[in-house]
Every structure is written in structure tokens, then in C-alpha cells.
Amino acid sequence: NSLDLDDCFQTALDLAKEAGLIISEAFKKAKKVEEKTSPRDLVTETDKLIEDQVISKLQELYPNHKFIGEESTAAGIKCELTNDPTWIIDPVDGTLNFVHSFPYTCISIALWVDKKPCLGVVYNPVLQQLYTARKNAGAFLNGERIRVSGKEDLSRSLVVMEMGYRPDEKKMEVVHRNAKKLIERCHGTRALGSAALDMCLVAEGAAEVYWENGLHAWDMAASVLLITEAGGVVLDITGGPHDLMNRRVLCAASPQLAQQMVQLLEVYDEDRD
Ligand code: IPD
């Protein structure tokens, strides 16, 4: 049976908006927070509620599809990307922001088929930013077409990067060396605490580069499509092809800029998703 992508896109939009209402409602209130792998790796009742709601609805509508979700994975469900249509969900990206009521948090929903992204929806209900992309049909912010800035020179580029803490001294040394080199060479650096939204900033031309070593498939599954549909580049930080399950991403407003980043960045390995 063939896949109706119009229907899937409408479903993703409806689910993102429903989740947005839950996030907005909970945003200013006290949150029930649990630590996962560390005091900086958090989950709230909102993350769990949204993921349960989104996956049950998708399962009901598309019983043959597969699912990858941040909280399902944390609960021990196998995280596997095959050629089958696979929905990849981060119920609350920027959970630490959400916990602090820092208004930079979103839900991210993507559908991948044959290991390629077909649609992506990233919704920040606090700032009312709805980012959408469909394969070969462009990237949009609240219905308006967006494009990367196209800048080519790192010294004139704004670089967004998350330098999440790693309980491993060797990895932290790499993080610090990379940060130092970038601070010296680019126009400015920013870190806003949601990989999915950071990537959307590159897609809309507000920043030129986003890279991270250590993020997960659900943080980037929707936003990689936003970048490419906005005319940007998505690579592995070694310069090779991007691999969704390999915990790294380099997004840039032009191939020239991507190459300058590849020359500069040092990489460390994480366990694959
Ligand atoms: C995290 C955020 C953060 C990034 C981490 C992600 P979560 O996602 O996107 O900015 O640096 O790598 O895991 O846990 O808030 O969904």
C-alpha cells in the first residue's frame, strides 16, 4: 500500500499543534523533573505525556509504520532506522530550557522513508514558530518560505553550537579546543539549548552554521530536512555524508563554509543510537 505523504504531513502538523498546547500550558508551571543519565539529562511528565500521545495516535493511523522516540528509547525500546516508513519524535527538544521556562523549546516530528527524510515539523509554541519542510517542496516558517543566508566566509558567520557536558575528560578537552578555535575565527557564537531549533536558525538565514558532536537522531531528524530544503548543507563533521544514527551533525549555509568547518573541527566518537 502506497504512502500518502499529504496525509502524513497533515497528521504531523495536527500532532505538533496538539503537543504545542500541552507545552504552552505547562511552560510557566512547576515541572515534575526526573534525571535520566545525569543531572543535565532530564525528562519531565510533559515529555512522556506528549511522546505517548503522539506515538499512540500515529500507531492507530499507520499501523505498519515504525517509530523512534526519545523517551521510548530511554525506556529501553530499540532505536532502529530501516527502510520502512519511520516516524522520529522528540516530544520536547530543549528539555532543560523547558524546565527553566527559557522560551526556546519545541516538539520535533519527522517521517523518514528508505532512510531519507520526507517531512519535518518543528514547533516552538512559546514563540509561536512553526517550521515545516517536505522533500523537494521547500522549507517554511509559519507558512513563509525560508532560505539559508548562503554566506561563504567563516569570519563573517554566526556559529550556533551546543557544547553539552560529557562525563569524560578527554571528550571535554575536544569540546573546549573546538570552541576556542571557533571563537577565534567566526563572527560570533551562540548556544540556545535546542538542537532542533538551532538548526532551524540556519535554515531561516539567522545563523550560518550549526554543529554538534553528541546529539541524537530525534534531535535532528526533522531539522536536517529544513536545512536541505532551505538550500543548506548537511554533512557529518568529518566532511563525509551525514549519518542520522551517528550522533553528529554539521549544517552550513554553503558548501564553502562547511569545508572550513570540517578543516577546523576535531571529532570524538560517541556510541551510535
Ligand atoms: C538536547 C538539546 C540540546 C543538545 C542535546 C540534545 P533534549 O535534546 O537539543 O540542545 O545539545 O544534544 O540531546 O534532551 O532536550 O531533547
TrEMBL record:
Pfam families: Inositol_P (PF00459). It is an enzyme of class 3 (hydrolase). GO terms for molecular function: inositol monophosphate 1-phosphatase activity; metal ion binding. Signal peptide: none annotated. Keywords: Hydrolase, Magnesium, Metal-binding. InterPro entries: IMPase, Inositol_monoP_metal-BS, Inositol_monoPase_Li-sen, Inositol_monophosphatase-like, Inositol_monophosphatase_CS. Mg(2+) 1 binds at E70, D90, D93. Belongs to the inositol monophosphatase superfamily. This is Inositol-1-monophosphatase. It comes from Hyalella azteca.
